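Hi support team,

I've been running sequence recovery on a batch of backbones for a student project. Most finish fine, but this one hangs at about 90% for roughly twenty minutes before it completes. I'm not sure whether the input is malformed or the queue is just slow. I've pasted the structure tokens below so you can try to reproduce it. Let me know if you need the job ID as well.

Thanks,
M.K.
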């Protein structure tokens, strides 16, 4: 007969392993180092169309995935809200191997941003690790799709059948995924271009937005394939290139211009994944011992009196 004056035994959660493990999870016994986002450009450049700070909005979005983590952000250039300030005063408790994890808010390898981050970390002397950027990642293609759909350039839903005929003259029949940051960035944009082409059923090619010649050649290649309404989709959050320069470049090559990615919940999820990857890698290197694990609680585990 069950004793009604006692609570039922608590079932301890089982940690899933292997391919179905939650990618956002990490070994909590390590503590929670701060998550520091490195925003490219200056604070003035890193503002969206509404005048809000991209770094602040990204911090709010990442906090939804990592509410227990201290989240900071700093800019790689300028004198306002700098990355050096964000790296100052990080808590280095004995229960954590790192004071923080720096996540660059770039969608591809970015030479200038990487150099600025390395210099800021070296000058601060903080015990931090720097992750990869937000791309290449499959979710970037989804964010690019969303921005193009918001501007009315493509269908909002995914194409089920290949179709090279646009519904009207406002719809794009070819897309240029614009990369910023150098040769490595163009390679990463190529991954996003392939995934975006699969989503849209259109021809999608990568190009280097730092090079007008590269964009001209890519648009010419699209036109040779029958494209009449090309659109440039910047694969960047926004601060990397001034909007005026992008508009002048689009006008020069005869293409319409999409909006930068800006702050987005999917980008926040990628940033949280990059943070978790660092913590999980540390957990694999130093698994906790039995004595370090917390004692189970519940009536079934109460010590005998």
């Amino acid at each position: 007969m069950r004793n009604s004056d006692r609570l039922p035994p608590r079932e301890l959660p089982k940690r899933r392993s292997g391919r179905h493990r939650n990618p956002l999870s990490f070994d909590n016994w390590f503590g929670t180092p701060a998550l520091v986002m490195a925003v490219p450009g200056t604070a003035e450049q890193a503002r969206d169309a509404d005048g809000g700070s991209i770094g602040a909005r990204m911090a709010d979005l990442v906090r939804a995935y990592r509410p227990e983590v201290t989240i900071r952000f700093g800019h790689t250039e300028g004198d306002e809200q700098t990355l050096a300030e964000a790296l100052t005063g990080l808590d280095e408790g004995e229960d954590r191997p790192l004071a923080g994890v720096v996540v660059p808010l770039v969608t591809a390898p970015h030479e200038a941003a990487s150099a600025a981050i390395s210099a800021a970390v070296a000058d601060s002397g903080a015990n931090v690790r720097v992750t990869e950027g937000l791309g290449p990642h499959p979710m970037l293609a989804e964010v690019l799709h969303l921005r193009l759909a918001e501007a009315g350039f493509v269908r909002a839903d995914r194409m089920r059948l290949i179709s090279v005929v646009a519904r009207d003259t406002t719809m794009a029949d070819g897309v240029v995924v614009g990369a910023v940051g150098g040769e490595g960035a163009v390679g990463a944009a190529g991954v996003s271009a392939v995934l975006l082409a699969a989503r849209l059923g259109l021809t999608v090619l990568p190009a280097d937005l730092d090079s007008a010649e590269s964009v001209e050649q890519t648009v010419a290649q699209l036109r040779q394939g029958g494209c009449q309404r090309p659109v440039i989709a910047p694969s960047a959050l926004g601060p990397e290139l001034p909007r005026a320069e992008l508009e002048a470049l689009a006008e020069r090559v005869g293409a319409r211009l999409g909006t930068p990615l800006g702050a987005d919940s999917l980008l926040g999820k990628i940033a949280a994944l990059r943070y978790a990857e660092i913590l999980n890698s540390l957990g694999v290197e130093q698994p906790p011992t039995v004595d370090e694990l917390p004692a189970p609680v519940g009536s079934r585990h109460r010590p005998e009196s």
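--
Follow-up from support: It reproduced on our side and the slowdown came from queue contention, not your input. Helices lie at 54-63, 83-86, 111-124, 138-150, 183-200, 212-224, 243-253, 265-285. No action needed from you.
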